[in-house]
Amino acid sequence: MTHFDSDHVDDDGERWDEPDVKRCQLRYEDRADTDGADWTRPMDRALELAARGPGSSRCNPNPRVGCVIVSDGTVVGEGYHHGAGTVHAEVEALRDAGDAARGATAVVTLEPCNHTGRTGPCTEALIAAGVKRVVIAQRDPNPQASGGVQRLQDAGVEVVTGVRSDDALLLNTDYTFDMEHSRPRVVWKIASTLDGYVAAADGTSKWITSEQTRKQTHEMRTGYGAIVVGTGTVLADDPHLISHDPGAGQEYDGPLRVVVGTRELPSGLRVLDDIAPTLVMPTHDPAAVLTALHDRGIHRVLLEGGPTLAAAFLAADLVDEIDAYVAPVLLGAGKPAVGPFGAMTLAQARRFHRLGSGDAGPDVQIIATRRVEPWMVAARRVKDRRATRTSGQDHGNIHDLGNTRRRGTGVHRNC
Ligand SMILES: NC(=O)c1ccc[n+]([C@@H]2O[C@H](COP(=O)([O-])OP(=O)(O)OC[C@H]3O[C@@H](n4cnc5c(N)ncnc54)[C@H](OP(=O)(O)O)[C@@H]3O)[C@@H](O)[C@H]2O)c1
């Protein structure tokens, strides 16, 4: 199986010099402190806690967040966000700390929210608990929730930002992308022959790639908020588009099924069964599709449509990543992987950058990105830092938490 390989990314994106590639402008700094204290160690613990939370999906649009309350070098409270509708990490950690939070430092992976959503603002909870300092890894890219730093400072709380910001970004790449672009990140999956066809001239398309590839691509659906296809694919192949069978009486929590196109869909199609929800969108506008999914809190979309829909997304420059499976099979004729999208000369080609490649049984997988995203650069820096640490050059924290005494009963899993 192929994984994202940050070796393909330079720190400053210099290797990615094609004219259509936006230079990566990182807004995050990896260290900042006001009193010389090094908060990286408690932040590492907060990051560990955050990683226990659910990733963003259709059922959980929220970011992963962890929080540690530190008093006199001792961890007195811990918490993390367990998913949409549950209390935020800061509140869980404050409850864990109880009275010990007064005068303590809250170390949190994401800027505390400053708005009332399904739960109250975390800024107010921190202020009410009497914490004297808040240490933050990543500023909240959500315009509705941001403003936490300002609110804390206005209330006289010291704020330290940028501690382990790369690591925090890596926890919430899809959330961050969506908040910054007001649309989900789009990954286009293709399974094609070596000569670039996705169906034969007579329309048959089962199967071009191997069983192993199909199993792998089926499993990867779970990481997405939605699977998007056009009516052409639904009418030709009658795909089910589910990530897993929820089982009798269980609610399906996999990706939303989305069918784009104006044609009537006959009842009885598998995508219209009641196992999972399906959104039918009678439009030809990819941007409108993504806006509707963004409004539903979906941060990452798997585009599994045919050549027509893929061309529409490419024409609008709305394909962020390609996950291609190429089988050692030739057809010589049939449906090409993508239809015309306006490139009439080589200079108009959509260029992508290879992020990784590898075997998928007898097939080859290639992952390519349209742009160098901040999280790709962050991944590279984190990898380099860990390599440095392994070689023994990164040690020494002002706050020695080695003799940390934990009080309380640990994180609350039932929130
Ligand atoms: N191997 C693979 O990876 C793979 C994946 C998917 C599909 N396929 C193959 O692809 C074939 C189907 O191709 P396809 O191109 O018809 O499928 P498609 O791209 O999934 O669906 C095409 C339909 O999407 C709608 N549509 C949405 N936005 C559009 C836009 N901007 N412009 C034009 N139409 C838009 C139109 O429906 P309305 O006419 O209803 O408005 C159009 O007919 C099948 O043979 C299938 O097996 C292969």
TrEMBL record:
E.C. code: 1.1.1.193, 3.5.4.26
Gene3D superfamilies: Cytidine Deaminase, domain 2 (3.40.140.10), Dihydrofolate Reductase, subunit A (3.40.430.10)
A biological process term (GO) from this entry: riboflavin biosynthetic process
InterPro entries: APOBEC/CMP_deaminase_Zn-bd, CMP_dCMP_dom, Cytidine_deaminase-like, DHFR-like_dom_sf, Eubact_RibD, RibDG_C, Riboflavin_Biosynth_HTPR
SUPFAM superfamilies named among the record's database cross-references: Cytidine deaminase-like, Dihydrofolate reductase-like
Listed Basic residues bias regions: 404-415
CDD domains found in the cross-reference section: Riboflavin_deaminase-reductase
Reaction equations catalysed: 5-amino-6-(5-phospho-D-ribitylamino)uracil + NADP(+) = 5-amino-6-(5-phospho-D-ribosylamino)uracil + NADPH + H(+); 2,5-diamino-6-hydroxy-4-(5-phosphoribosylamino)-pyrimidine + H2O + H(+) = 5-amino-6-(5-phospho-D-ribosylamino)uracil + NH4(+)
Lineage: superkingdom: Bacteria
Location of region: Disordered: 383-415
Known function: Converts 2,5-diamino-6-(ribosylamino)-4(3h)-pyrimidinone 5'-phosphate into 5-amino-6-(ribosylamino)-2,4(1h,3h)-pyrimidinedione 5'-phosphate.
Name by which UniProt lists this protein: Riboflavin biosynthesis protein RibD
